[in-house]
Amino acid sequence: MIFRGPFPEVTIPDISLPAFVLQRAAELGNKPALIEGPTGRIVTYAALAHSVRRVAASLAARGFKKGEVFGILSLNVPEYAIVFHGVAMLGGIITPINPLYTDREVAHQLKDAGAKFLIAAPQFIDKARTAANEANIEELFVFGEAGGATPFASLLEGDGEAPEVEIDPREDLVALPYSSGTTGLPKGVMLTHRNLVANLCQMEGLDYFTENDTLICVLPLFHIYGLVVILNLGLQKGATIVTMPRFELEQFLRVVQDHGVTMAHIVPPIVIALSNDPLVDDYDLSKLHTLFSGAAPLGEALTRVCIDRLQVKVRQGYGMTETSPVTHSSPCDSAQVKFGSVGVCAPNTECKIVDLETGEPRGTNKEGELCVRGPQVMKGYLNRPEATAHTIDADGWLHTGDVGYADEDGHFFIVDRAKELIKYKGFQVAPAELEAILLTHPSISDAAVIPVRDDEAGELPKAYVVRSDDVSAAEIMEFIAGQVATFKKIRFVEFIDKIPKSASGKILRRVLIERDRAGAI
Question: Fewer Cβ atoms within 10 Å of its own Cβ: the N or the C terminal residue of the chain?
């Protein structure tokens, strides 16, 4: 059975992403496009478009060409949008990098992506230098100033014109975020101009917000949710976007109050804070009319608590990096929203639920793996045809690895994860990556990593370890913490005599999860 949403199909123009997103910049002129939340610094639509052209011209003069890759290692700042669209205007490809990564992880992404240039925020310049050297980056830029890096301001100088670059929206890549997909190590997700333009059009059909809204961008721009759903859709719609470098509740509340934020895109841990923290009562959030939660499931009970306290609409959605990202959304009409559901299929999107064992389609209220098909589905994984074929089948269905069901009204509910990924506050943690590091420890002979449930984070990594020598849980956690980003740290270690595996040697992670939840180990 194939499900489709109730929304009408949308028309997707054959146009590059920058041309689509910035098409109204001249018309909007002095309207604030981006505001730096902590400082109040404003970038107007006219200034944004001008700066994008300046950056494109300067990069072209430095020899940056269509098809080359540019890395961004930064927290949320208005300049993120300028660099992104300056690179995209040249037909370049942006690979956004998580600034929580270690220098080793940054270098891996840069090398795998084949990046030519890198720009970093000043606070990350040391790891950026180390990674850039290892990845043979030709030039390192910095927002502001730092030794050994070219100031971003220099890209805004000069009076050259950006070259006209012919872009094939269906084939040419514009973004290369990294995702672990349904399993394994992080892989470059090849997203074309058409993928992102299509998803912006699809979200417009979902009636998210208008140019009269002020959005808060506290979700990271290196994440597909922040990059597309907030930044690019916000600019395309002509809204004002207030950026925050990270989530801190008091600063978040102050920014929402002082800038009259009307819509906030958030994740469940922020919903928890807004629902429970007494600090919320000290701020005027009266202009805030909608919260949109994504990246992880949001339960019905918490949704109702939040609505009652803030007197706002709460909508929920679903998507993946591999789908640009949105595939599902709850309706705009509150009367049609089903709490706990990720909503219905987006326009131009087909969905089905398939049996986990046989792959056969299932009907309503039957659990199985969620599969999606539509113009927002990625081109594939960079240089990984086998992983691509494992995720997107011959009929174009992308297998999400998430287990769920659709009810009789076509509302989808995500109930579990068939894939091995651990979701920590919306970030992906690949067990295979942590297991590979664990096995380099001289006192560990075997290991498996599973998710354990957590009310605030969603899931936390836990390691089951078979020791070959004396080593403590604390020593193991410290060993991992020194080699990975903070969100990937192992939070629990339990020793076990043997890791359960299939006849082919595959870790039976589900067995460990079930035994852990039952308290049997």
Answer: C
Q: 506: domain range?
A: 422-518
Contact status, residue 444 vs residue 436, Cβ threshold 8 Å: no
Bridge partners (DSSP) listed for residue 345 = 328
Contact between 95 and 176 under an 8 Å Cβ cutoff? The reply is yes
Please identify, among 133, 166, 199, the residue that sits at the C-terminal boundary of a domain.
166
Strand runs labelled E in 143-211: 150-151, 173-175, 178-179, 187-192
Distance CA 406, CA 370 (A): 9
CATH code (residue 120):
3.40.50.980
Structural domains in the chain (count): 2
The pLDDT tens digits for 141-166 are: 999 999 999 999 999 997 889 999 99
Query: Got the DSSP string for 81-149?
Result: HHHHHHHHHTT-EEEEE-TTS-HHHHHHHHHHHTEEEEEE-GGGHHHHHHHHHHTT-SEEEESS--TTS
Share the mean pLDDT of the chain: 93
pLDDT greater than 90 at residue 427: no
3-state DSSP call for residue 306? helix
Q: Give the mean pLDDT of 78-102.
A: 97
- Running DSSP on this structure, what letter comes out for residue 227? I
Question: Which pLDDT band, with edges at 50, 70 and 90, does 259 fall under?
Answer: very high
Alpha carbon distances (Å) from 357 to 371, 390, 418, 511, 512:
14, 15, 11, 16, 20
Res. 503: pLDDT tops 60: no
Closest CA to 214 of 288, 266, 280: 288
Q: What is the mean pLDDT of residues 165-189?
A: 90
Q: Structure tokens of 118? A: 């890198």
pLDDT band at 504 (very low <50, low <70, confident <90, very high): very low
Q: What percent of the chain has pLDDT over 70?
A: 97
The string of pLDDT tens digits covering residues 461-470 is 999 999 989 9
Instruction: Say which range, 16-25, 215-224, 469-478, 511-520, has the weakest mean pLDDT.
Output: 511-520
Cβ pair 201, 282 in contact under 8 A: no
Beta-carbon contacts of residue 37 (< 8 Å; ≥ 6 apart):
216, 242, 243, 244, 251, 255, 259
Instruction: Single out the residue of 332, 286, 329, 333 nearest to residue 310, CA to CA.
Output: 286
Instruction: Taking the CA atoms of 412, 418, 419 and 424 in sequence, report the sign of the dihedral they define.
Output: positive
Last residue of a domain, one of 135, 166, 197: 166
| C-alpha pair distances (Å), 415 with each of 341, 406, 420, 499 | 10, 11, 14, 26
- 78 in any annotated domain: yes
